[in-house]
Structures are given as C-alpha cells and as structure tokens.
Design a protein that fits this description.
Mean pLDDT: 96
Radius of gyration: 16 Å
Number of strands: 0
Strand content: under 5%
C-alpha cells in the first residue's frame, strides 16, 4: 500500500507538471497570464522540479515504502513542497521569499527531503 501511495503521488506530480506546461507555453501570448504569473522563469523551475520529483517518486517507490509510513510522509511532503516553492515565487515574483512563513515552508521542505534521503542511504547499508 505504501508503495502504491508513493507511485500514485509521483504520477499525480508528473501530471501536474504536464499541466503547468500550458501556462508556460501560453504565457508569452497572454497579457492576462503575464499579470497573474509575473515570474515565468520560476514557473518553468516548478515545472522541471515537478517532473524530476515525480520521476523520483516512481523510481524509488518500492525502496521508500520499505522505510515505512514516516519515510513515505517525509519523502512525499518534501518532494511536493520543494517543487511548489518555485510556484509560490512565480505568482509573487519572488516577493514572498522574504516572508517568515515562506522561509519556514522552505526549511521544512529541505529538511524533510534531507532526512528522507539520508534515511534511504542508511537503508541501503542496513
């Protein structure tokens, strides 16, 4: 069941990345999108990060699941939040980067992924 959760999360994240491709593509032709999403480069970063994280979900699903529900939670949360940090920045044109809540979310995301990958490395040598 845990493996299915990680795989499904990866497929959802890849689908989300594909859908983000549309506003990236249409951004240059749409004054509305340029107003709503001032940070096109950040949108592209989110798109690429969602692709990479989604692929990592699928590739590592069985391995992550062996670590149990806490590892699955850390891995899934960190992977999703890491990519969406760029999405927040795209909509705010980097204005939220200095906000306390944003720094906390960023710290939680990076910490979650750091712990998850260290845990996976330890599983490799156990």
């Amino acid at each position: 069941m845990l493996e299915w959760i990680v795989e499904t999360s990866g497929l959802i994240q890849l689908t989300f990345a594909v859908l983000l491709g549309w506003p990236i593509y249409l951004h240059r032709q749409s004054a509305f999108l340029q107003r709503v999403i001032p940070g096109r480069a950040r949108l592209l970063q989110s798109h690429i990060d969602d692709i990479f994280m989604g692929i990592l979900h699928i590739v590592l699903a069985g391995y992550v699941a062996k670590g149990g529900p806490i590892l699955v939670g850390l891995f899934t949360f960190g992977s999703w939040m890491n990519a969406q940090i760029f999405l927040f920045l795209a909509f705010t044109n980097d204005a939220c980067a200095s906000r306390a809540w944003f720094r906390i979310v960023t710290l939680l995301s990076f910490t979650s992924l750091t712990v998850a990958y260290l845990w996976l490395l330890l599983l490799q040598f156990a």
